[in-house]
Amino acid sequence: MTVALAGRTPATFEIKSANLPLVALLLKSSDLQLLEQDLQGRFGEQSEFFDHDPMVIDLAPAGEGEIDFARLVGLLKRYRVMPVAVKSGTPSQMQAALAAGLASAQDAALTPALSRREREEQPAPAQPVAVQAPPASTSALVIDKPLRSGQQVYARGRDVVVLAMVNAGAEVIADGHIHVYAPLRGKAIAGARGDAEARILTLCLEPELVSIAGVYRTSEHPLPDTLRGKPAQIRLEGEKLVMLPLNP
C-alpha cells in the first residue's frame, strides 16, 4: 500500500547543489617563510591579480611536514585569494586543515595549463574543473602613460598594450599577450591564468622578471647581448621560455 505524506518546504531557506570554479595552489614546501618570499617576489607586497577568488590547496607536493594553516590562510588572503579547501595531504595535515576551518576537497581535479586554442577545442566538461582560465576579451587594455616603480596593471581576461616605458619596480600582468612598445624594465607576466600560447613582445627587453603561464625567468640570469636592450619576443615551449629577436 502506498502512503503519501504531506511535505513542508521551509519558508526561510532552500538547499541546492552548486558549481564553484576554483583556483588551485600546489604547495611545494611546508616552509611558509620561503613561500612568503616567493609570493612577494612574484606579486609584490600585494597584488591585483586575484579578485578574492576561492582557492583549493593541493598538499601533495609539500611532503609530510607540519603546516601552520592559520598562517598560510592569512598569507594567501593578503594576495586576495580565499582558501576554502585542501586536498591530498597526510592524515595529520588534513586534520590540522579541518581544525583551521578548511574543507576537504579530495575529489577536486586540477587541470594543466592549456593554450587558448586547446581550451576552445575542448568539449564542455560534465562537472566543473578546479582551475578555469577566463576567456580572453576581444579588446586589449591600452596603457599610454609610463608605469612607475610600485605601479601594477592587470588585464583580466584580455591582452595589454603599453605605449610607454615600464620602469623597474612596475608590473604588467595579462591573461593574454603583453605588448610593450617601449623599454620593458619591470615585471611582465603573460598568460597569468594558464594561457600557454600567450607571448611577451617589447621594443627594448631589459626586464626584472618575465613569466608566461607560471614559467618565469628573473634578472638574476643575465640576458645575452643579442637580446638585452633590443626588440624581442618571448613565448613558452613546454616548461621553457624561448626568447627571440622581434625582427631576426
Describe the protein in words.
With 248 residues, this protein is α/β, with parallel strands linked by helices. It has two domains: 23-110, Alpha-Beta Plaits; 141-245, Pectate Lyase C-like, CATH 2.160.20.70. It is 15% helix and 28% strand. It is built from four helices and 15 strands. It has helices at 32-43, 69-77, 91-99, 116-121; strands at 23-26, 53-58, 81-87, 103-104, 141-143, 152-155, 160-162, 171-174, 178-184, 187-190, 200-205, 209-212, 215-218, 232-237, 240-245. It has a six-stranded mixed sheet with strand order 5-7-9-11-14-15, with no helix packed on it. The chain has a five-stranded mixed sheet with strand order 6-8-10-12-13, with no helix packed on it. The protein has a four-stranded parallel sheet with strand order 1-2-3-4, with helices on one face. A hairpin with a 2-residue loop joins strand 14 (232-237) and strand 15. The chain starts with 22 loop residues before the first strand and ends with a strand. Interacts with MinD and FtsZ. This is Probable septum site-determining protein MinC. Residues 142-242 form the Septum formation inhibitor MinC C-terminal domain.
How are the strands ordered across the major sheet? 5-7-9-11-14-15
Identify low-pLDDT runs. Answer: 1-5, 122-137
Q: How is the biggest beta sheet arranged?
A: 6 strands, mixed
Number of DSSP E strands: 15
